[in-house]
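@channel sequence for tomorrow's demo:
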Amino acid sequence: MIIHVRTAGIHDGKFQDALAWATQIAEYINQTIPGANVQVALNIGGPIYELHWVSSSESLAEHEQVLKRVDADAGVQRLRAEQRQQGLFIGSSIVDRLYETMS
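structure tokens (generated this afternoon):
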């Protein structure tokens, strides 16, 4: 199984707006993109102004197909543009990580 984690640092004073937006885009993706399984996670230890979108796929090939559909979706692009206009996240803080489960 492949686990994808996208992490983003939140700008000061934008925590509630960032959390609302993160939840909104995760719900949109889950409802619109077949095979998507996105959850929003917050740190309970470590940096406070950081959140994560976590998804899982059965294989790397499946993950790539879902990601392509997400990136091509007009609604996702609109939501991302709204997020940039609101200045919710620190652009240089956004990091993607992939993990393969071993058991």
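heads up for whoever presents: The first strand starts at residue 2 and ends at 10.
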